[in-house]
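[User] Once you have settled down, look closely at the record that follows, and write a paragraph about the fold.
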Amino acid sequence: MFGDVDFILVPGDSVAHRVAAPNGGSDPDNLNYDAVKANLEATFAKFKQYFPNTMVLPTIGNNDGRFKDSAIPEENKADYDSLIYELWFTNLAGNSGLDLESIQTTVADGAYYRADVTDNITVLSLNSMYFDAKNQQLQPTVASNIMSFVEAQLELAKNESRKVIIMDHVYAGSSNDTPVPWFENYNEWYFTTLRNYADTILIEIFGHDHIADLRSHSSSGVWNLTDPSPEFNFHNMFVAPGITPYDGTNPGVSKFEISEDLQPMNLHIEFLYLF
């Protein structure tokens, strides 16, 4: 459809809807959990088959865990995060040139990581399930670790004149059906950090909505933060369409280019019209 690509971003929901157990429900025989893992294995087997030498960088979606809209329970973390590392990195030859030792450490902590896709572009894959306002598997230590990781990586990128792509699934701010998708303290942290490193962040890539959406924001009127002077624009984000149909939406895939001066450009989206 798009020809050869340098890397593929997969912003979450690699598992079909309604496979995970309901949020706040139960899964006493691990039937939902086993089905989630089988879905993950099937999805990334396809990436391995059709993109054997392409860098593929996923993130966790709200349907990818044992319970919908929640982080993986602590008792399943070691098993789940080990599987994620195997499927995303051990099994995908296109990812073999990444810093796998560091990635394995952060994936084991909470399925987040840094991937350098070029000499001057880094992808930070967050795991927003630890920030999600619907999350019932609260693990504040992991959330704090992700926050510290993001801040440290952005500071490092700034000092090295690198640009950063932030990728996640359920995004901060306000979505089309949820006024505040993240807990308020995490929202405040995210937008504070985003504004502080506006010149370092190339673009933010998200999923979740199953519709395509481009957004940006003035630096003023953000959350409950003090307006800066002078004002500037930031929060350059793209909500990518889903590759699965859901609630009347058509599946779609997207491609964009990055110019020599490190600006996103030439966004192109292809939809398969089913409805």
In short: The longest strand covers residues 264-271. The helical segments are 31-50, 77-90, 100-110, 140-159, 184-196. The longest helix spans residues 31-50. The mean pLDDT is 94.
